[in-house]
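fyi for ur records
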Amino acid sequence: MPTLLLLLLASWLGVGTVQGGEWCRSQEGAVGSYDPGRQEINLCMERIREKQRSPMEVARHELFHAVQHLFGRNGRSFLSDDQITPLVRWLMDDGEVMAVLMLYPSEEINSELEARLVSRLLPNEVIGGALLAGRLLQDAPQQGPIGSLRAYLLGRPDS
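which gave:
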């Protein structure tokens, strides 16, 4: 699936895309973000080009942060420390890992590393499927098989 179709699917599922704008002007050096309150990804296209980054990889990375949010991860990764550490050692440059360690709050480091890995390793279909599953679980009724799966994955909602 082309990344453009992934962005269209995300939009259909309620995750918008913004290019440039106030966030990019206020964040020196950043190439993108996911805003859970607005449910939108922000792509700083000029900076992406300046840093010679792939706009599609940045979009995929930010969409995976949307997946993390839809599944209620609240800044936590899906993978544990024991799972993510060897992947980072094998697949990421030491300089990039150090930058993440220095720039991100400690409770968000693993989710950032995870999103960087996913954006490079998993196909768009998996990210799109995860967005769809996250939206279904978030919006699911409390009864039936989807409600049971939602309760299992996310816990029972407070009454």
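The longest strand covers residues 16-19. thats all i got for now
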